Amino acid sequence: MSLSDLTPQPLWRFFQLLCDTPRPSKQEQLLKSRIREALAEYELEIIEDQVGNLIIRKPATPGYEDAPGVVMQSHLDMVPQKNEGSTHDFSKDPIQPYIDGDWVRARGTTLGADNGIGVAAILSVLTSKDMIHGPLEGLLTVDEEAGMSGAKGLQGGVLQGSLLLNLDTEEENELYIGCAGGVDIGGRFSYQAEPRDDRRQYWRIALKGLRGGHSGLDIHSGRGNALKLVNRALDQLRKQFPALRVASLTGGTLRNAIPREAFAVVAAPAELGEAISRRVSELQQLFLQELKSVEPHLHLTISDTDSADLLPEDMVDRLQRVIFACPHGVFRMSADFPGVTETSNNLARVVMDSGHIEVHCLARSLVDSLRDDAAQSVAGVFELAGAETSVGNSYPGWAPDKNSRLLDNLTRLHEKVVGVVPKIQVIHAGLECGILGANYPHWDMISFGPTIRGAHSPDEAVHAPSVANFWKFLEATLAHLAKPD
């Protein structure tokens, strides 16, 4: 059974096209070319703006030309995450989706249902010959996962519609009317490496097997942060074995993904090797005991490795204190939307290169002023440790409007079409609505989508029956909005 056998077939065929086309952030050009090819036979106007977004216009169904214009929006890029041992190259290899009961998953990598299902739905609408709708525009943005430069660079006055349907949320039977804003925080340390000591034995300590996940949607889940855990292990080893030296401490891959793996390279006299290995095994058992309900596949291992230059002891001390002190997780839950995270921070990455160490975080909040306050809390930790600190690449949240006419219409329509009263929700993730709304303040906006689990991790899966319901509701929404009240 292939994706094209699933319902609705046009949507799944377009999703297969997306899976076949590499599309990590900032590498969407090939996908845009293939989309143009797929749409060539249809009477559509296709524009690529100055930052690379695709805008695709479709005339109204005859007789519905005076209906309000609808903009359907999703992003083209996907988060590139893969399992340990995978040789997948996201710059050139296709995603390998497969059907697992009611779920669609990928072999060893992220699936890209975030936001590929939304893109596929838009392309299906634009190529449909029997749907009822008013004037339509598809807005396919670039670089959403790595900085939202596509949404930020979209100029006002380009789009003609007055209603925005964002198709980038991940829970069936929910309508979203707000989202978190975010900001990147970085700390950069400089150091002079010390020469490698070939009289010592070198080992690589690896923390793997964590679930990771979306740094907004999963930040409240209590999942392990690989950087925090390796830092704890390293601290325990340094205290027990004063002769142990550190060559590196790195981990994490993306600012918007909870770190799944982290690594340290250490050196010590060879006669300490057996005792160090025993302590690493003890620490693995300790971490498993602490996180057994959420991280049953956690692995802390030690293995021989090549010699390397050493970090100065004072640099290791500063870096360890930063990782210990840097907040990770929920700052505060929303008082207005029970069960929703209001403000959080993700300790995302530690990277080393040529005498520099960088620590990267992403803070989010439903309230822009609290987003900035969280960023200053993190930046303060970096500054106290003497790091060169940066706070930037911020984007606004999308303030909820409970009096939205579009919300009222679609709430009633959802109950009629799907048979379920939808939950009205905000999301602790960075939808592009807040950014887009700054240049299009007249838009009435709403977001919805199918059920997706494990976004931003290789566990990502989309619930196929929910995709069918999502499509049914999208089709009904466009018909409903085309008809006068």
**Could you say which structural class the secondary elements and strand pairing correspond to?**
alpha+beta
Through-space gap between termini: 43 Å
Tell me what portion of residues adopts beta-strand conformation.
Answer: 25-35%
Question: What is the class of the largest domain in the CATH system?
Answer: Alpha Beta
What's the number of extended β-strand segments?
A: 21
Whole-number count of domains? 2
Radius of gyration, taken over Cα atoms and rounded to an integer in Å: 24 Å
Backbone shape: elongated
Q: Count of helical segments? A: 11
- Main sheet overview: 6 strands, mixed
Indicate the multimeric state.
single chain
The pLDDT mean sits at 96
- Uncertain residue ranges: none
CATH architectural arrangement of the largest domain: 3-Layer(aba) Sandwich
- Which bin fits the share of residues in helices? 25-40%
CATH topology of the largest domain: Aminopeptidase
Looking at this structure, what is the CATH superfamily of the largest domain?
Zn peptidases
> Reading side by side through the largest sheet, how are the strands ordered?
1-2-6-3-7-19
Give a written overview of the molecule:
This protein has 485 residues and is α+β, with helices and mostly antiparallel strands. The chain has two domains: 3-180 and 397-482, Zn peptidases (Aminopeptidase, 3-Layer(aba) Sandwich); 183-395, Alpha-Beta Plaits. It is built from eleven helices and 21 strands. It has helices spanning 9-20, 29-39, 113-127, 149-153, 226-240, 273-291, 313-325, 368-384, 405-418, 433-439, 464-482, and strands spanning 45-48, 54-58, 70-75, 97-100, 103-106, 136-141, 163-166, 174-179, 181-190, 201-208, 245-251, 262-268, 299-304, 329-333, 341-353, 356-365, 388-395, 423-427, 444-447, 452-453, 461-463. The protein has a six-stranded mixed sheet with strand order 1-2-6-3-7-19, covered by helices on one side. It has a five-stranded antiparallel sheet with strand order 14-15-16-9-17, with helices on one face. β4 and β5 (103-106) form a beta hairpin. The model has no long low-confidence stretch (mean pLDDT 96).
